[in-house]
Amino acid sequence: MSSVLEQDIREKFRRSGYTLTSQRRAVLEALKEAKGHPSAEDVYLIVKRKNPRVALGTVYQALSVLEEIGLVDSKHWSESPTRYDLNVEPHLDIRCARCGSVSEIPGVELGELEESIRDNTPYQVTRTTIAVEGLCPSCKGA
Amino acid sequence: MSSVLEQDIREKFRRSGYTLTSQRRAVLEALKEAKGHPSAEDVYLIVKRKNPRVALGTVYQALSVLEEIGLVDSKHWSESPTRYDLNVEPHLDIRCARCGSVSEIPGVELGELEESIRDNTPYQVTRTTIAVEGLCPSCKGA
DNA sequence: TTCGGAATAGGAATGGTTACTGATCGGAGA
DNA sequence: TCTCCGATCAGTAACCATTCCTATTCCGAA
């Protein structure tokens, strides 16, 4: 997992027309710090440690901008808030139905599925999200 | 799409220990009547036409029971209420991001994906849901 | 330095869903 | 058929993730 370069960040902001504010940078830092797949609330709490005046709404707005310009990916599992991820490459994540932890599933080929979907629907496909749920190794036994 | 047999319904209720009440039957009928992929609210409105006293909460509870015993499947797309479906076989559905209509995507092989997921994670996989979004033929042009 | 549009803080509002409570139902057993 | 008890229901309040609103602040271009 290569960390996003400073240069990439500036470039993506420049091209999008959005401004790279301190709050948006702080949200990126928080995502890096959280390392896993934090929710907006998780990110908010981390950002708040350094800047107690941030608003939760600002975090949501920042995450939405970051996602729009391709620096962040989001995934949603039912009965759980949306999770955010610095890994924007197509990949699978699994969420433990018991403890809520999320981790990556490596080595699954997704390209064929996307193609097969496009070949079988008259819709213009814009997004395909796969939500995998299960029990993590430590919750499995309990 | 074969309609679920009366016998199957009774059998699944009997085995589960839940009771087949008139409300739960009405929810099943409403799903059949709606034909597509109605939301809980849609189902509620249909049921209400014949029994104005039903409560929305009852519809939610009935749908949850029906899903648990395998008579109904549910799917969730972000920014949209959960949709329910009498087709409980694994299959793909695509939702139009513009008008919200949902339709089935036939002919996509999913078995390999499931298998590949199980082979690549230490989690015990319990559920894999795929949410495909796009623009339907009539919204594509607008 | 000034100005205007973008971004933010703070908090209220939204909307799908669940939880709660007292009334009602329905089926197993007498 | 009648009784009784747990399941289910109607009605409504609560929940919670997320969005919306508004006055204020920030920031960059001129």
Describe this protein's structure:
- The structure is a homodimer of 142-residue chains.
- Chain A has helices at 6-16, 22-34, 40-50, 56-68, 111-120, 137-140; strands spanning 73-75, 83-85, 92-96, 102-105, 124-135.
- Chain A is α+β, with helices and mostly antiparallel strands and 142 residues long.
- In chain A, helix 2 (22-34) packs across helix 4 (56-68) and helix 3 packs across helix 4.
- Chain A starts with 5 loop residues before the first helix and ends with a helix.
- The A-B interface holds A 76, 78, 82, 92, 94, 96-97, 103, 105-109, 113, 116-117, 120-137, 140 and B 76, 78, 82, 92, 94, 96-97, 103, 105-109, 113, 116-117, 120-137, 140.
- The structure holds a DNA duplex (30 and 30 nucleotides).
Write the SSE topology.
2 copies of one chain form a homodimer.
Chain A: H1 6-16, H2 22-34, H3 40-50, H4 56-68, E1 73-75, E2 83-85, E3 92-96, E4 102-105, H5 111-120, E5 124-135, H6 137-140
Parallel strand pairs in A: 3-5
Antiparallel strand pairs in A: 1-2, 3-4
Helix pairs in contact in A: 2-3, 2-4, 3-4
Chain A binds a DNA duplex (30 and 30 nucleotides) through helix 4.
- For the largest sheet of chain A, list the strands in their spatial order: 4-3-5
How much β-strand is present in the residues of chain A? 15-25%
Number of helices of chain A: 6
The rounded Rg of chain A comes to 17 Å
Cα shape of chain A: globular
> Main beta sheet of chain A, described?
3 strands, mixed
How far apart are the first and last residues' alpha carbons of chain A, in Å?
32 Å
| Low-pLDDT windows of residues of chain A | none
What would you call the structural class of chain A?
alpha+beta
By DSSP, the count of extended strands of chain A is 5
